[in-house]
Amino acid sequence: MTLSQISYFQSEIMASKILILCILLPSVFDAKSIDTINDRMKQFETLLQNISEQLEKEHLARIELEKKLANAEKRIGSRQVTQDPEIAFFASISTNIEHLGGGQIIVFDNVVTKVDSTNSLGGYNHVTGVFTAPVDGLYVFSTTLMSHENAYAHFRIYRDNTPVAAVAVSGTLHKYYSASATVVLLLSKGETVSVRHHESEDSALEGAFVSSGQSMFSGFLLQLHNRVAPFIG
Q1: What pLDDT is recorded for position 82?
Q2: Residue of 88, 101, 135, 165 with fewest CB within 10 Å of its CB?
Q3: At 40, is the pLDDT very low, low, confident or very high (cuts 50, 70, 90)?
Q4: Of the listed ranges 5-19, 96-110, 194-208, the one predicted with least confidence
Q5: How many Cα atoms occupy the beta-carbon half-sphere of 9 within 13 Å?
Q6: CA–CA separation, 178 vs 180, rounded Å?
């Protein structure tokens, strides 16, 4: 019941008082009857006052509840931003890379996607070819590499300076072959991931063979690391 409805109800009660008096007073004019009518009217007034007070309490309680809900939504939104950052990248090689040396980091210079909602200095660096974890978490990385024709190459995905996966590609006369690898790594903030050439002999990678990159590197944060749960890796 709204305040306007209460006012209307009060007006109706008052009109009822007048109507009752107009009907009863001509026929019943003794003091006892008038006292009875007055008592009834006081009961109505008391009831109406109680209803009005109860509605006012409910109105104030609703306002307080709405404030609490709004504050809770703000806290939840802030917590989601903090706990669920968006971190992802996708890059390719824009031109052929020739004469790769042993242990050389492959620089995927053409960045198509790079997202880091933490606004850190981490993420993927298209100058060095190295990804640096902005937060502790479970990450997924994938690379696809295409060799030159008549060229053999062996590559590895590294976490810091430790290899975790290998990719071997071999091209034949007038043919280009590619290979892929995907890894799931639990990284601490500041740890790095890169793709490196493994052989000591000269090798080469195919870049933009038909306008788009043929050799690619991508990664994203799957979820933040729960330090309570045990992990391996």
Answers
A1: 55
A2: 101
A3: confident
A4: 5-19
A5: 13
A6: 7
| Spatial distance between the Cα atoms of 170 and 167, rounded to a whole number of angstroms | 10
Would you say 197 and 145 are in contact if contact means Cβ atoms under 8 Å apart?
no
Return the exposure string of 189-221: e unless at least 16 CB atoms fall within 10 Å of the residue's CB, then b: eebbbbbbbbbeeebbbbbeeeeebbbbbbbbb
Is 85 in contact with 139 (CB distance < 8 Å)? no
Domain annotation covers residue 198: yes
Question: pTM surpassing 0.85?
Answer: no
Range of the domain at 213: 85-224
How is residue 38 annotated by DSSP?
Answer: H
Neighbouring C-alpha atoms within 13 Å toward the C-beta of 38: 7
What gap in Å lies between CA 109 and CA 128, rounded to an integer?
9
At 129, which CATH number?
Answer: 2.60.120.40
